[in-house]
Fold each of these.
Amino acid sequence: QKEVEQNSGPLSVPEGAIASLNCTYSDRGSQSFFWYRQYSGKSPELIMFIYSNGDKEDGRFTAQLNKASQYVSLLIRDSQPSDSATYLCASPGGSARQLTFGSGTQLTVLP
Amino acid sequence: DAGITQSPRHKVTETGTPVTLRCHQTENHRYMYWYRQDPGHGLRLIHYSYGVKDTDKGEVSDGYSVSRSKTEDFLLTLESATSSQTSVYFCATAGGQETQYFGPGTRLLVL
């Protein structure tokens, strides 16, 4: 069974710092990963997806995928208090593109 | 926002009673999913659908059933609610891409 593991945190960083969130996975066949952000009491929203090895940048967010080491990470540069949320990584698979989620990492950005 | 609504948004029920949660989407997405979210477990897939009347079990399907008679509606039924089914339930949809979009969630308390 596919497993996706996240360092559960919680993680606290000062405003303006880089927040690093990590995820490891068990299925070597996994081809892509999604990062969702979930504010307290709200539903998850997609912030990044990555399909290939290396880095993908979108504004202050950078997703990194290393298939050889089976990990994926999300870097948030110039962290803001509004980035405080739980971040979930997920890997799709199966006939209906089901997602397997990690347990999430709670990030707090301190002003 | 993929035009996903869930009803009810909050429900309190008693052990042993049947409960039906509704997910409605306006995006004509083929795939629909039901997840539950509990502290320390992230999001876990209950059931999913890959078309009208085509459904299958997810990771935590025991005690749940689903139906999809129209593209836009996906119903989740707890046949006989138990306290262990107290949770937040999220519906999600996906179209041609793998990206899943989430509804606002339903908070269910089983007493």
Note: The interface with chain B takes residues 6, 8, 32, 34, 42-46, 49, 88, 90, 92, 95-104 of chain A (CB under 8 Å).
Amino acid sequence: DAGVIQSPRHEVTEMGQEVTLRCKPISGHDYLFWYRQTMMRGLELLIYFNNNVPIDDSGMPEDRFSAKMPNASFSTLKIQPSEPRDSAVYFCASSLADGNNEQFFGPGTRLTVL
Amino acid sequence: AQRVTQPEKLLSVFKGAPVELKCNYSYSGSPELFWYVQYSRQRLQLLLRHISRESIKGFTADLNKGETSFHLKKPFAQEEDSAMYYCALPYTGANSKLTFGKGITLSVRP
């Protein structure tokens, strides 16, 4: 298994543009998490899904952010319109519902909004 | 509400020196705590969890309920230990969801 896959690895865009980040969780995992990492705030949970259903999106900063999980093997995080303060590394992680609580992280997408 | 505090952002030591990365928590109930590590150009990954009581790469962490701490320790740091370290614990009532501290960068100099 290649682990959690994220694309693109790097994204540079201009303010106002739409950005879509993609994630493929580990096959068979029940949970999928989207995080944002910045120097100031560390690792923040944005939203997470259980069996493709969004459970908690309280970490989503504002309406410009949206996330979907149309099936068990794919999720997207969209920012529209993007702003410079959205520049960060965005991580996707997945885990099993086995009470183990170990999350497996993707390599991240480094987003730069100019 | 649960909270994880990592009071330092950066720790710089020489190779062979002891390391202690601090983590304090607030949690109602019996917490399960974790340390995750992110080496340069690698994914964030689980380093160890308190429930397993194991030593990984020479690191240990003891849960101290009296002091509500879960400090990560290693007696002799190696250069390859240089990385970002995050302490984490589950949310009350939502065990699959973790809250992370802000992380600490460990730099081990030769």
Note: The longest strand of chain A covers residues 42-50.
